[in-house]
Sequence to fold (155 residues):
Amino acid sequence: MDDEALRDVQARFGGLIDQEVLDRDGLAEAAADREFEVDPALGTDEVADELSRLFRTDARLNRVLLLHEGERVAVSTRALVCGTGAEPGRPATAGAGFATAERSVLPGRSTRYRLLRFQCADGMCGTTTYASFYDDRLRPVCGSHGEMTFAGVVA
Fold:
């Protein structure tokens, strides 16, 4: 695999990989608790789900070396997959690095966004929060009662 192909594979994983370990020398020396061969047919979210499952099922894992067709391509960490930006034990999204290229965002404000309201599932709590998107894996959480339920679109 040449350097350009390596960068393409790494870009596919976005925020799931350690950005400090991207060059060939770093990958050759990278320490990890386990290796994981990434199925090329899987999308980024499916890879995130697989990594999340690995980290949830083995508490000893902190670093996983990702392989693509048997070659070291990246290192993923428990903190990146299950920590920052997601509830513990829930997969992170590909996020960082995606849609950040020059000209990837159109100028101006979108007129197509709708504000979504979420309420605590406990009917007596009254905690409400708002979001601009809905992803069942990343639903807002009430500090006292757990996951919140979708309560409708704000007009």
Remarks:
- The helical segments are 3-13, 24-29, 44-57, 78-83.
- Residues 116-153 form one domain.
- Residues 84-103 have pLDDT under 50 and may be disordered.
